[in-house]
Design a protein that fits this description.
This protein has about 425 residues and is of the alpha/beta class. It is built from 18 helices and 14 strands.
Length: about 425
């Protein structure tokens, strides 16, 4: 099977590379340490006697942030060396900034072709491998099996789309899943899907999502929230606070719908301010064109200028500021959830910060998690964009309901923490054995 994969991978790579290369180039920083992608990661020293070297692969910024508590838990006994790789340029920048003094080395994940993968493995010489979420790399897993290095899949997720695809090639999925020493499913639904695809039942554990353990900013007081709103250009009056609607990690088409909803809120008599935080900052030119076509005042955060007073729309086209800015919001719309998008961005951060949220109908990347959040009373799920408008209009005039949802979100988040410690304990016990 691995020989067939190797035969098919290179032509596919040559076809796909120009497209993905262009996308990465647009995001910037793609040329930094580009040789790592061909396995030319810096040669590392031999592991210190008695120590274990763990290679962790975290795709992008979200995964880089999420593995922080797990990384800390693994290194508690001071005998673990961490080599961290990531795929995107933004993830690489964040990893070096966040873990530069903690990890033995930080690099870029090699392309999953035998020549590049083998070279990287020879230079890193890990004692264990950790992949995150939905990363199943056949060549990478083959190198681990060939070298008798245990592989672990952490925070494993199988979206509706991925599940459907893997069912069509179930024998391949089973071969990959059975190469893991342990798989830590993010939810019970993910566990059930992994087992149905062929993962060994005894090797799939459900400790919860590690994303709950990511440290959250301190909750702001009312005065601090008001100060944050003023810094965004959202003028406050002594008699009435504006209603701040957050577009959290939005995708194409969703910003236009939020602009329509903002206009409906204003016509209803609500002083609505819109805080847009697109998932990809490089979409700024497209969003500037959209904002220029409407009449409300707007501001582009990356411009560096101070926002004008009495601003109506704040476009936060910067990276890594979502958690900081979210607490200015009274209500959040969770992006990538309105058709044709259906995968969903994570609602965990909004809930932990006490921001009530509304999301689209499917949320296939976080289906079980979102059901739990809705059951807890911290979020609402809508069928379509028209119902989204109706629910936001209702909530904008229901402060008591928003307060109730805020408290429910923080309670739900607090009760879900601790998976990183449990996963680290299982991995370390495996390595000791």
């Amino acid at each position: 099977m691995i020989w067939l994969y190797r035969f098919l991978y290179l032509p596919g790579l040559l076809i796909a590379l120009p497209y993905y290369g262009l996308r990465m180039w647009r995001r910037g920083g793609y040329g930094k340490d580009f040789q790592h992608r061909f396995g030319c990661i810096h040669q590392l020293p031999q592991p210190i006697a008695g120590n274990k070297r763990i290679w962790i692969q975290a795709v992008s910024v979200g995964e880089v942030l999420a593995i922080g508590p797990l990384l800390n838990a693994l290194q508690k006994n001071n005998s673990i060396e961490i080599v961290l790789t990531t795929t995107t340029s933004t993830g690489y920048t964040e990893a070096r900034k966040r873990y530069g003094t903690q990890a033995l080395a930080i690099g870029i994940f090699p392309l999953d072709f035998w020549l590049f993968s083998s070279k990287a493995w020879g230079r890193i010489q890990p004692d264990a491998l950790i992949l995150t979420e939905s990363e199943l790399w056949p060549e990478h897993l083959h190198q681990a099996r060939r070298r008798k290095v245990p592989a672990f899949l952490v925070n494993a997720r199988i979206s509706d789309r991925s599940f459907s695809r893997y069912q069509k090639v179930q024998s391949l999925a089973m071969r990959m899943l059975q190469k893991f020493e342990l798989i830590f499913a993010a939810s019970q639904l993910d566990r059930d899907r992994l087992v149905s695809l062929g993962a060994n039942t005894n090797k799939v554990r459900t400790h919860g999502s590690i994303k709950f353990d990511v440290s959250m900013p301190a909750l702001l007081t009312q005065d601090e929230c008001e100060s944050l709103k003023r810094s965004l250009g959202f003028t406050l009056s002594a008699s009435k606070q504006p209603f701040v609607l957050l577009g959290s990690s939005t995708w194409p088409g969703e910003e236009a719908r939020l602009l329509e909803i903002q206009q409906a809120l204003i016509e209803q008599g609500t002083d609505c301010r819109l805080l847009l935080v697109p998932r990809h900052a490089e979409r700024a030119p497209e969003l500037i064109k959209l904002l220029s076509s409407q009449s409300l005042s707007w501001y582009q955060r990356s411009s560096g200028d101070a926002p004008p007073a009495d601003l109506r729309i704040h476009l936060a086209d910067t990276t890594g500021e979502l958690a900081q800015l979210s607490q200015a919001a009274d209500l959040a719309f969770i992006g990538k959830s309105l058709p044709p998008h259906h995968e969903g961005q994570t609602p965990i951060e909004a809930a932990g910060l006490g921001i009530p949220s509304v999301m689209g109908p499917v949320m296939s990347n976080f289906k079980d998690l979102c059901r739990s959040l809705v059951r807890a009373g911290a979020a609402l799920q809508v069928h379509d964009s028209e119902q989204l408008k109706t629910r936001i209009l209702e909530l904008s005039t229901a402060p008591a309901k928003l307060q109730e949802m805020s408290l429910a979100g923080r309670t739900w988040h607090s009760a879900s923490r601790g998976s990183s410690q449990r996963i680290a304990a299982d991995i370390l016990a495996c390595l000791d054995a």
